[in-house]
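A brief tutorial aside. Many learners find it easier to grasp structure tokens once they have seen a single protein encoded end to end. The record that follows does exactly this for NAD(P)-binding domain-containing protein. Read the sequence first, then the structure, and try to relate runs of similar tokens to stretches of the chain.
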Amino acid sequence: MNVYAIGASRNIGYHSACRLLAKGATVTFLLRSPSTFDNDEKIQPYVRAGTARLVKGDALKPEDVKRGWEEAQSTKDGTVDLVLFSVGGTPSFHPTKGFVITPHDLCTRSVLNVVTTMPASLRAPAAQPRFVIISSTGLSRASHAELPLLLKPFYGYALRSPHTDKFAMERVIAHCAGWDWDDEVPNAEVLPPTWAAEPGVPAFGELKHVVAIRPALLTSGSCKGDTKKNGKAPYRVKDGELTDSYTISREDVAHFLTEGLLSDWDKWEGKRVHIAY
């Protein structure tokens, strides 16, 4: 499998990429600082083997994302099997705004760069890669209403800014994948009203192989998927809101992505998959 990974220097993207590399995949990482893996004992063996390919670039710069596409294509006769998009900033805390990211449209602008620089040779339906987009629960008003009561204040205050960005990101993905959109219009400061007319934006429904993963509140910790006992499912996954969905570890999201989603793609393709314990 040939993978183009954007935002995989840490967290879900990183854990997913490590699992894919262990399965024999080739992963092209777009990294602002390739040196981030210099002392990484998991990644370095694959760097030496040539299956982890580190491309210096910023997802906020279209020319860098385009070069990442080209580097990924060069490893497999122009074919890219999977695009793993897990961009997310390092938030800082603001007393009145909660956690904020810089820039405020990080995920939205980055995903636009990915789809608008997608090579023409990969746009035909039969040649398109699979796209996996890491999003979140609680983004829209309807989704927020389904959150556990204890989490609503935290999502509404602390995560308001990054979720405004991810909500707009999902609007872009919904358009490209041909999904119905009955939610409110995203914040115009994050996604301008004329975004769909920008050069290179795919037509409605042009991307045929898209899945969005919407994890519950993310934690770090052991991967329950690797240690499940007595045949009990380590986490819950559903095409739709999950009740009482409090948390999920980043490691288990990566476990589902590599062990569940990709191995049973036909079941999940075109869906917005919620995952929680």
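Self-check: The longest strand covers residues 26-31. If you spotted this yourself, you are ready for the next section.
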